[in-house]
Write a structure and sequence with these properties.
The chain is of the alpha/beta class. It has two domains: 11-278, Spore Coat Polysaccharide Biosynthesis Protein SpsA, Chain A (Alpha-Beta Complex); 290-372, no CATH class. The chain contains eleven helices and 15 strands. A five-stranded mixed barrel has the order 5-8-6-7-9, surrounded by four helices. Helix 1 links the parallel strand 1 (11-17) and strand 2 (63-68).
């Protein structure tokens, strides 16, 4: 790999590794979140697969991971090449604006002019060449002064993803497929999603953002000046002995809000957002229906089975079974079933209702049943 030839000499990858993945309960928990699981049957956790995808692009020494303090040991065990200086620990979850903003500010403080790319720790991408091509174009767009995102070419009228609307093409050197993104839309209903797919100008919002760190922070400051002020205060002391005291004082005061609302949407409204269409396979594995779909691709079996010691007998059944207990599970004549069997909780639902699992988690929180969360 020649990073200078590819225009990557200023590029740094950021992996935000946070969020519980509540729609994957009871598999995904606060102490064992989604990104620490192998949901594809590949033998690699989602976090490790993300690292392996990014290391050939930015170099393993130029990847920063933002995660919770409780997950530090597990993350470092998964990523032994991760430099200690590139581990950013959150004392409590503050969503993606604070996580990505702080990483960008630390890197800009260390290396003025750096270009950063944020890539979630829990997405599944099989086509590494296609992914690399899109990242190279996004970096070129960032060099040209845009905040760039990689939008995923839709393959179906999905209702579980947000969408980005594409406007006119942008004439950017080394980014021939770049177009201006003029707005984001939230997860649609089925009829609206079908209209988006037929329109052809809508891409799935893959949550990947690439920009000069200074530009990302400037945009964040325009929409949330207090949040930016806190982030910059943290970044100034991050590599000094003052870090601990300042983190304990400042981090709890930061607003909890997604970067879509503080950076992406305002940038689109201001004409500063470029989108690179990504034609590679992609999934955010948002629920158990997505897992079933992933395992159905290229396989003859209609039933996906996950778990090292899973014992499943199935007759005329389809869906997904996740087992962590070694208990025998028998399925007879059930279609699109979801069974998740753990030591202290059992989930049984269907693929059609997989998005509703989050409501169970919310109900458990309200009832104070934190022991199973």
């Amino acid at each position: 790999m020649n990073r200078q030839r590819d225009g990557l000499e200023k590029f740094y990858s950021i992996i935000p590794a946070g969020g519980i993945g509540s729609r994957l309960w009871p598999l995904s928990r606060a102490d064992a979140p989604k990104f620490l699981h192998d949901l594809t049957g590949s033998g690699s956790t989602l976090l490790r697969a993300t690292w392996d995808r990014l290391a050939p692009i930015s170099g393993p020494d130029r990847i920063m991971v933002v995660t919770g303090r409780a997950h530090r040991a597990a993350v470092e065990a998964q990523l032994p090449a991760l430099a200690d200086a590139n581990v950013v620990l959150e004392s409590e979850p503050k969503d993606s604006s604070a996580a990505i903003g702080l990483a960008a500010a630390i890197l800009e403080h260390r290396e003025p002019g750096v270009i950063v790319g944020s890539f979630a720790a829990d997405h599944v991408i099989g086509d590494r060449r296609g992914f690399r091509r899109a990242v190279l174009e996004a970096v070129a767009a960032a060099e040209d002064g845009f905040i760039a995102t990689i939008g995923i070419t839709p393959t179906e009228p999905a209702i579980g993803f947000g969408y980005v609307h594409c406007a006119e093409p942008l004439a950017i050197d080394r980014a021939p497929s770049a177009v201006r993104a003029d707005r984001f839309v939230e997860k649609p209903d089925a009829e609206t999603a079908a209209a988006y797919l037929a329109d052809g100008r809508y891409l799935w919002n893959g949550g990947m953002f690439i920009a000069k760190a200074s530009m990302l922070l400037e945009q964040l400051g325009e929409s949330r000046p207090e949040l930016l002020a806190g982030i910059l205060e943290l970044a100034r002391v991050w590599d000094t002995p003052e870090r601990g005291a300042v983190v304990d004082r400042v981090w709890p005061t930061l607003e909890k809000i997604a970067i879509d609302y503080t950076v992406a949407e305002p940038a689109a409204a201001a004409g500063r957002l470029a989108v690179i269409p990504g034609d590679f396979d992609w999934d955010d594995v948002g629920d158990f229906a997505a897992i079933a779909k992933l395992h159905a691709r290229g396989r003859k079996s209609d039933l996906a089975i996950l778990g090292e010691n899973a014992r499943v007998l199935a007759d005329s059944s389809s869906g997904v079974v996740v087992s962590q207990t070694g208990r025998l599970i028998s399925l007879i004549g059930v279609t699109d079933i979801v069974v998740v069997d753990t030591e202290d909780a059992l989930l049984v639902t269907t693929s059609a209702n997989a998005q509703r699992v989050k409501a169970v988690v919310d109900a458990l929180k309200l009832s104070g049943r934190d022991d199973v969360l």
